TrEMBL record:
GO terms for cellular component: plasma membrane. The keyword Transferase does not apply. It is a multi-pass membrane protein. This is ABC transporter. It comes from the Eukaryota. Keywords: Membrane, Transmembrane, Transmembrane helix.
Length: 82
């Protein structure tokens, strides 16, 4: 049993380190309070954000295309969620 588990010890160690970093990130307190309504309000905003012909796959499933020729334009002052 030990001979079977030993080669995987490296992966257990890497997983424990990754879990520690994820836990640290989850427990962190952001510098900016997103619920606070104070701050600088930009009166005049120009420009836009554009994505043109984006292709995307997850590294774990490169054969499954999530976005193919995806384009999106978000005008200044607007929000968008996918």
């Amino acid at each position: 049993a030990l001979a079977i588990a030993l080669p995987n010890l490296k992966y257990f160690s890497e997983a424990a380190i990754a879990a520690f970093h994820i836990s640290k990130m989850i427990d962190s307190v952001p510098e900016i309070d997103h619920t606070e309504e104070t701050g600088i309000v930009l009166e005049k905003v120009s420009g836009e954000v554009q994505f043109k012909n984006v292709q995307f796959t997850y590294p774990s499933r490169p054969e499954t295309m999530i976005f193919r020729d995806f384009s999106l334009s978000v005008p200044a002052g607007h929000s968008m969620a996918l």
